[in-house]
Amino acid sequence: MLSIVLESSHGEHILSGTSAQTIAEVLRLAGVPLSSVWTYMVEERPGAVAGEPTRRRARFVPASTRLGELDGTVHARVNRNIDLAGLSRPAGEATRTVVEASTEWTFPGADQGAYTPISSQLTPQECVAVVQAAVDETLDQWPPDMPRRLLVGTSGGGDSNVLLAALAQSGKLAAGDVAPVLLLGPDMDRHHDNPANSATASAHRWW
After folding, report:
1. Helical H runs in 7-142?
2. pTM passes above 0.85
3. Taking Cα atoms as reference points, which of 127, 203, 207, 196 lies closest to residue 159?
4. pLDDT, one tens digit for every residue, the chain (207 residues)
5. Which phi-psi region, left, alpha or beta, contains residue 112 (left: φ > 0; alpha: ψ -120 to 50)?
6. Which residue in 88, 82, 78, 71 sits closest to 14, CA to CA?
7. Are 44 and 123 in contact (CB under 8 A)?
8. Which residues contact residue 121 at a Cβ distance below 8 angstroms, ignoring those fewer than 6 apart?
9. Domain boundaries, the chain
10. CATH of 2-87, one of 3.10.20, 3.40.5, 2.30.30, 3.40.50
11. Residue 35, helix vs strand vs coil
């Protein structure tokens, strides 16, 4: 079996494939969107003159390349802060179902000292509760001698709004302690109206 090294800020994960499979096929089987990674190989070249150190450079490899055509290790670098290694974990060995589920996630469950993956369905309320618990835990670790002032970058989407709501409902911050900032860029500018309006509405409600 050949492999692809999936790299993200959360660590590395090895995806196995056969020589007949393309990079794209291996990534799709692992649930990794092609639009979220950059595929490359590392090349080493001797220095141009004697005594010059070896040079290393990353060379793009098309996702249509078959693993059997490669003469080295191919890497898939995540271009956003997404835990794709976590997303590609094996399916849970147990399942938790709920009424009116909106999503599901794989959690580690304790079983006689070992971890058993549990595929758990979540309601919208449970999703919000997960974020709220993480925000509360983080704020509880805030140094007591440091002013509680936060600058929060937001896209105006669902994730950003849930985070802002969790900060507001934590009871650990006063009005005016959080400043939401809408981040703009080449992709955001085309859709400026919706996130801008959403972020502005959030700001007027509490901040």
Report:
1. 23-29, 84-87, 124-140
2. no
3. 127
4. 689 998 887 778 899 999 999 999 999 888 888 878 889 999 887 766 677 777 788 888 899 999 999 988 999 988 766 665 555 555 556 677 888 887 777 676 655 555 566 777 888 899 899 999 999 999 999 998 888 889 888 877 778 888 999 998 999 988 888 888 886 655 555 445 554 444 444 444 445
5. left
6. 88
7. no
8. 95, 96, 97, 98, 101, 103, 104
9. 2-87, 90-122, 128-205
10. 3.10.20
11. helix
Burial bucket for residue 23 (CB in 10 Å: 0-12, 13-18, 19+) = buried
Look at residues 207, 157, 165 and name the one whose alpha carbon lies nearest to residue 182: 157
> In Å, how far are 40, 50, 52, 74 from 59, measured between CA atoms?
5, 24, 21, 10
Nearest by Cα to 17 from 59, 65, 60, 58: 65
- With a CB cutoff of 8 Å and minimum separation 6, the contacts of 151 are 179, 181
**Main-chain dihedrals φ then ψ at residue 136, nearest 5 degrees:** -60, -45
